[in-house]
Amino acid sequence: MSMFKPSMLTLALISAGVASSNVALAQENDAANIEEQQKVEVIEVRGFRRSVAESINTKRFANEVVESISAEDIGKLPDSSIAESIARLPGLTAQRLDGRASRVSVRGFSENESATTFNGREQVSISDNRGVEFDLYPSEIMSGVTVYKTPSASIEAEGIAGVIDMQTVRPLSKGEQVIQFNGQFEQTSFDKLNPDGDDKGFRGTISYIDQFADDTLGVAFAYTTMSSPNQEKRWNSWGYPDVETPDGNTYSILGGAKPFVRSSTLERDSAMLVLEYAPTSDLNMTFDALYVDFSDEKILRGIEVPFAWGQGTRTPLAVDDETGFVTSAITQGQRVVVRNDFEERKAELTQFGFNLEYQVSDEWSVEFDASRSEVDRQVWSIESYSGTGRGDNNGVADDLGYTFNSGNTGAQFTHGLDYSDFNLIQLGGPLSWGHSAALNNHYGLTGTEYQNTAQDGFINAPEVEDELTTLKLAAKKLLDNEYINSIDFGISYRDREKTKLSEGYFMTLADFSLSNPGMLVVPEQYRLGTADLSFIGMGEMIAYDTRALVDDGYYNLMAESLTDSKHLTRSWTVQEEVTAAFVQANIDAALGDVPVTGNVGLRYVRTEQSSQGYAFSVDADGLVVAEPTDISHDYSHLLPSINLNFAITEDQTVRFGAAKTISRARLDEMNASIDASYNPDRPDENGNHWSVSGGNPSLEPKEATGFDLSYENYFSDEGYFSVAVFYKDLNEWIFDGIYEADMSGTADPATGLVPEHSTATGSGKINGGGGDLWGYELSLALPFNIFADELEGFGLLASHTGVEQDVETPNGDEYELPGLSDSIQSFTLYYERYGFSARTSMRKRSDFKGDIYGPGFSTDQVAIQGETIWDAQIGYDFGESGIAGLEGLEMTFQVQNITEEPFVSLQGDNSLQVRDYQDYGRTYLLGFKYEL
Predict the structure, then answer these.
(1) Rounded to two decimals, what is the model's pTM?
(2) Whole-number pLDDT of residue 97
(3) Cα dihedral sign for 388, 392, 397, 398?
(4) Which of 66, 302, 333, 430 shows the smallest number of beta carbons within 10 Å?
(5) Could you give the CA distance from residue 445 to residue 440 in angstroms, rounded to a whole number?
């Protein structure tokens, strides 16, 4: 029995059609409140303060523990992706990818442990795995985001960390015509780091919402286009090997480095369409569609500098006594690789959904939902090499020195050669990197002085396709009961297929042969000038148009997969068919004088998964031979959940939640591509004749049993504070180990015949081990008008999250969960009144382990240092100015990454061994919004 009495601001939000669906549902259940609502004079609520109030109401009236952000938040602070906005929510944070927030962590778990939905439907992803990269989704066309930290049985997605649901607008709920134009000019603080790069960009959005046929037909359409520059100065190391000196001491020293300057341009065109039809009060049908055309082009120029793993002599000059790390050294007789690289990452997303809700009678309602989403991603990453001569032993060598900077910012080099001289630095492979039997045989280099020297560049070309179809049929039965007001139940089906194809190509100059083994001076028409590497002390280097040289036929290509099996390991198809059924009782009761709401439910999930790949080995000639594999597995789970909300006063709520949840295995770990060998004569210690390593198609989901307890105090229309604690018992986590695999029907790659024995000893990922994760959250929304009327318009939002873990591998070794920062803070100080607005926001996280793209676009996990990122915005709404003709105009100016916070990752536990130091500078954005 709901006893909530709405505030004036809440009623105003409802009257304006902007309150959350949770608030609207609470009002539906209380006729007295609806009557009161109709008598209230509508209060004008605008801007960021309105969005704060709406987000608070969503949290307040949800049955689950949630956080939310409204369209006003996303639109008013126009971030390049939704991740920038939701990373400021309590308990959430984001990992930057090339300077942009992209991968979202929830309560210490990485993006692979949470699910992402679009209008309640699970989404495909452009990554190799399940985790969504949010820079694909334009924030400008979304109406809101809700993060479910505790589940209920009716939510159509599974994730131990939670579920992130993105929502589009419902045009009939808007209740008025809206025609709006948004524009934004963008500039980086760095001047062009590459002569052919961009330092300026633009994004624009047109949106239209309207209602027809006596408000029974609604239409919403939005189109947005973006060309967003991003620049970076990056220090990148190969690694830090240990070396022993003649006196018997062991030191770690720089193995080599690959610093560069990057200029990127993210181009994204998106269109969204929503059609809503409600011919009667009992029937509502909604069709939504989303199309995204995404392209991220990167120009990278730098000098790859071998050191301990290179040629010549090495002399340490300075050593850190505490760690034994060589902080300064010189090398003589060293050859480097001058790199002019180009990368293009393209993706195309289409998503269609249809939802039908029908009120069969006063007591019964049904819902049908269907959707289809697809994404295709192609990467074309070109590395072009140049230097003073071909191979390890030709051309002019250099004398190089390095000294590491303080503050983990990389090193400064000294050098003797002029790397901006086009006559000295020529096209071709200056080091013997082309270790390929196929490449050597093709050019007749085997046994000659030019063996392994035919690699003049390289192309990585992975592709990903992800397809997902969902169906849902559900019903609700209202009850006349003092404990349960309704029962929800239903069934759903999801069919997903994800395919990755990996390939790489050796590049060799088209005129190269054993009789013509020289380098090539860069033709005049492809020269672009120089790129400045002064930030690492290497001065200027030659710059040329690599993509045009490849397009114009200056290189021949040869597939790396002929002799390197890793591309088969990374090529696979994974299919999942998930059938689920749920029942959920919605609680509306009283415990004495305390109203109790919430739900209790049970979800049954059955999964049938299969994977197709390759079993392969390398023959005596160094060539890869492979046979197809097809392995299936199935399993099921029962997932109970309960959410209880105790309204101890009108403004205070205590919440309790408990649930069993799952997170499915990473797709690249459960594929059927394996390095396989068969011994017909003698089984191994496990009694198996097959031996395989690679993916494990029999992996099952990780499991967790979670408990949440929170106290929330809503002391103002725009203010609340909450204290929450949470605990998760983790089981069946995924680690490296030994497993048994079924090779039935798979031919021995060495013979092409299906052998007698079919079981194999596998080496790869297995379920096992686990542990505990626990933490707390403190959240505050504080409007300053509660202290004095003169402070009307001022306020702050702040949160702090602390997370601890105790997780062990099956062997009892300690394990650090990816994405876990043990301390997360967010802070926003704002002012908004009389049309003027000002805001500054901060998000901070401590050190964590994170996934990055490694060689060949594989996924590598590295130690990433904590960061603190500040943004700020000022704006003016001319609707408050009284100037005729400008009533619908708003202007904003924003600065992102004010303090130029870098992205830093380490090679190991030694804080001096910097793997990556990425300096992005600041970004400035000048925007406008005009509503007719």
Answers:
(1) 0.88
(2) 82
(3) positive
(4) 333
(5) 5
Tell me the three state secondary structure of residue 416: coil
State both tokens at 713. Answer: 């105090």
Residues 420-433: b if buried by 16+ CB within 10 A, e if exposed: bebebbbbbbbbbb
Quick check: 601 and 585 in contact, CB under 8 A? Answer: yes
Looking only at Cα atoms, what is the longest distance across the chain? 95
Residues in the chain where the model's pLDDT stays below 70: 1-46, 71-81, 853-859, 908-909
Q: What is the 8-class DSSP label of residue 111?
A: G
Residue 410: per-residue pLDDT: 87
Nearest to 612, CA basis, from 573, 669, 577: 573
Query: Which tokens sit at 898?
Result: 């004010």
Q: Dihedral sign for Cα 677, 679, 685, 690, please.
A: positive
Find residue 805's DSSP bridge partners.
773
* pLDDT in the model for residue 79: 52
pLDDT of residue 35: 42
Q: Residue 302: enclosing H or E segment and its boundaries?
A: strand 283-306
Structure tokens given for 287: 């069709």
Residue 10, token pair as written in the block: 């809440």
In what helix (H) or strand (E) does residue 53 lie, and over which residues does it extend? helix 47-61
Q: Which spans in 412-477 are helix H?
A: 437-443
200-212 and 217-239 as β-strands: parallel, antiparallel, unpaired?
antiparallel
Handedness of CA 391, 395, 401, 402 (dihedral sign): negative
Count CA within 13 A, CB hemisphere, residue 328: 7
Contact between 56 and 22 (Cβ < 8 Å):
no
Task: Go through the chain and tell me how many residues it has.
Answer: 932
Residues 6 or more apart whose Cβ sits within 8 Å of residue 311: 333, 334, 335, 392, 397
Collapsing DSSP to helix, strand or coil, 482 comes out as coil
Label the pairing between strands 325-334 and 313-320.
Answer: antiparallel
Residues 6+ apart with CB under 8 A from 904: 408, 864, 865, 867, 914, 916, 917, 918
Determine contact, residues 405/505, Cβ cutoff 8 Å. Answer: no
892 vs 576: CA distance, rounded Å:
46
Cβ–Cβ < 8 Å for 904, 912: no
Q: Among all chains, which residue has been given the structure tokens 């969902």?
A: 470
Q: Position 553: which residue type?
A: G
Please report which helix (H) or strand (E) contains residue 14, including its range.
Answer: helix 8-15
Burial string for 795-805 (b: 16+ CB within 10 Å, else e) reads bebbbbbbbeb
Q: What angle do CA 273, 278, 284 make, to 5 degrees?
A: 80
pLDDT at residue 693 in the model? 87
